[in-house]
Recover the amino acids of this structure.
C-alpha cells in the first residue's frame, strides 16, 4: 500500500504544469508560473507574489481553480 501511494505521488509531481493550482506541504496555495527540473515557481495571493518551492514540497493539485484568490484568504 505504501509503495502504491508513493508511486501515485511521484506521478502527480511529474505531471505538474504551468497554470495548475496547487497546495504545498506548508499549506500555501498558489498557481504554477514556472516549472524547472527540481523547482516550481508559484504566484501566491491577490498580488501574485512569486515564490519558489522544491518540486517535492507540492502536496496536491487542486481540482477546481479559485476565480478570486482573495476569497481563499477569508
Amino acid at each position: 500500500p505504501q509503495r502504491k501511494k508513493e508511486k501515485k505521488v511521484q506521478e502527480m509531481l511529474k505531471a505538474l504544469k504551468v497554470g495548475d493550482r496547487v497546495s504545498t506541504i506548508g499549506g500555501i496555495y498558489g498557481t504554477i508560473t514556472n516549472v524547472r527540473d527540481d523547482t516550481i515557481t508559484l504566484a501566491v495571493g491577490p498580488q501574485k507574489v512569486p515564490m519558489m518551492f522544491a518540486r517535492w514540497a507540492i502536496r496536491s493539485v487542486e481540482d477546481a481553480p479559485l476565480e478570486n484568490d482573495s476569497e481563499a484568504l477569508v
